[in-house]
Amino acid sequence: MSLTQETTADNDNDYIYIPRAVFYAVLAGLLGLVVGAVGGYFGAINVYNRGVTDAVAAVDDAVNDAVAGAISTSADSTGSESAPAAPAAHVDGDLTDDDPYLGPEDAPVTIVEFSDFFCQYCAVFGRQILPQIIEEYGDQVRFVYRDFPALGGDRPAEAAQCAGDQGSFWEYHDALFENFREYTSTDDFVALAETLNLDGEELRDCIESGTYRDEWNADYQDARALGVSGIPTFFVNGTRFVGAQPYENFKQVIDAELEKQ
Question: Does 211 reside within a domain?
Fold first, then answer.
């Protein structure tokens, strides 16, 4: 055997020969595994995010439904808890205070709402039900908005009152509910004011000085004294309604009140 022949034979032992078809099949399989793994990862992230979103919405609903129990109990001096007496279905007297209102002061029907700008059901009422009431009944109804920031909506409550100093409480009220929970910081409230052509820095000074801190707190205390424990709570000529109510329920009681006139 020649030297050249021996060298060639030795080199043959250093390599594994794979047919081209097999090589491409293996490569395609590996690429498929990588693509599948990446797709599965991002798919799992997407499912997780949807799950978190759904969970947050569920928690929000649960908080709104359970806020009555969270607020209605109070601790006495011994540390034991006691629940207040069940609130009356009807309350006599003027419940309006000096809060912002729509409609004439001498309207035959007055609706007082205790509300929170962080409350989902309050936002639904403000966006959908209230406009229907105003459209159908006009000057026959006065609507009064009062603060009950049970879910932490005290900052937007102050911001809305500060916007009222510039004559735009209701525009600000509508914008807060239209963009539910998007506005949480002073900078957010200022930015929103500027989109409504208000003086943003004036609003900032009003918020930071705490001008309306006592105002929303007084509303909150009045609500507690009335037995309010869930939001939204409405008083239609003193008749209490609690929670999400369809338009038909308001229409029924408003019509009944108008028939008494």
Answer: yes
